[in-house]
Amino acid sequence: MRRFRKILIANRGEIACRIIWTCKEMGISTVAVHSTADRDSLHVRFADEAVCIGGPTSSQSYLNIPSVIAAAEITNVDAIHPGYGFLAESSYFAEICEACNIKFIGPRPDVIRLMGDKVEARRAMKEAGVPILPGSPDPLKSEDEARALAREIGYPVIIKAAAGGGGRGMRIVRTEEEFGHAMQTAATEAAASFRSADLYVEKFVENPRHVEIQVLADEHGHCIHLGERDCSIQRRHQKIIEEAPSPALTPELRERMGATAVAACRRVGYSSAGTVEFLLDEDGQFYFMEMNTRIQVEHPVTEMITLADIVRNQILVAEGKPLWYKQEDVLFVGHSIECRINAEDPQTFAPSPGLITAYNAPGGPGVRLDTAAYPGYVVPPYYDSLIAKLVVHARTREVAIARMRRALEVMVVEGIKTTIPLHQGVMEDPYFRAGEYSTRFMEQFFERRKIQGGLAASGGA
Length: 461
Hints:
By secondary structure, this protein is of the alpha+beta class. The protein is 34% helix and 24% strand. It has three domains: 6-105, Rossmann fold, CATH 3.40.50.20; 134-203, Dna Ligase, domain 1 (2-Layer Sandwich); 209-452, ATP-grasp fold, B domain (D-amino Acid Aminotransferase, Chain A, domain 1). The chain has 15 helices and 20 strands. Strands 13-12-9-10-11-14-19-17 form an eight-stranded antiparallel sheet, with helices on both faces. A five-stranded parallel sheet has the order 3-2-1-4-5, sandwiched between helices. The chain has a three-stranded antiparallel sheet with strand order 7-6-8, covered by helices on one side. The radius of gyration is 21 Å and the shape is globular.
């Protein structure tokens, strides 16, 4: 068992700041790496040391493995925390860290590789007794094979990138005539995003909920879950709002899904924090989607209802320590909601980089803001548009919604467009307030807004 003296954070923005806060509490020094575009970012300011690793684009900097490793060796760190995105689910990067005697804060490379291959992950989950949707057991070899499978399992089906996630390389196919174009565009997108054009096909569930289970596992065989998050409110498979617990789950279903996620982790020898994602159909049946072998953007809602520090647990597990609590020790208190504040037009979702001319962070009881934004900060055009995660916690879902409405009302971000007006609209939506929604919510929400006259003008807030 070791104790880390210094950790390099191979990421940027709010998640880099989030990791720094926990490291400070643990007495661990931090190293920030940054691109030339991020030289004035908060994670650079608040880390104990900072190293510029390249130009403004991701390929020149945050995805540049030799530069990241060089920064780690120059600053003599014990470990690297990858955050999410970039190199977080790169088994190759984890192997390089291992070869350089630098601890990768995450699962073993072979586990990352297994769960990153969606076809192999499906196979492993099936062997573990986890429910999976009918679909192709191996990557598709031809369009004819895909059509034959679709006829066998029944339309609609969904084509997915075997090496990917996050909504890229995915196409819904409702008729046989749509297959050719759908496969071609999915393969092109998959190759561009994941360097692999391999695809698979599975049954498409109409009106599902996207429910994921947060797990923690150590290197000694212990594994627990921290309950679920409902991530159904999405646009083009990209999450916008998350909440915990899910309005759709009963205590019995929560227990079954949690136990299934834990069994899945044990089957693959998982350690660290991770998330097992499920589709939940209208009949209450759930099916494995994928596993994310990293910390999730939406981890704060779980932290709010369980009082767990997931980043701290990641670090302790990476140090070789056992989990300090058992499943029966996990407490669930109240309700939490997270809104992703993106630098985007709230109606078209077009990116809106630029200078933040005025900024006010909301506060008050039960409000948490994870952000790297500040007045005078220039949002660069090179990366994901997320600039803040506004999270609230309250005794009940009703009060949590009211608290989020209040927090959104006083949050000010001027100079760029943001999704704040969109979130305000969702908080007022009767279907959301009733907890009656699926992954089609945003599509239906905009249809309702067309009839009612659209979102409030976004201005610059």
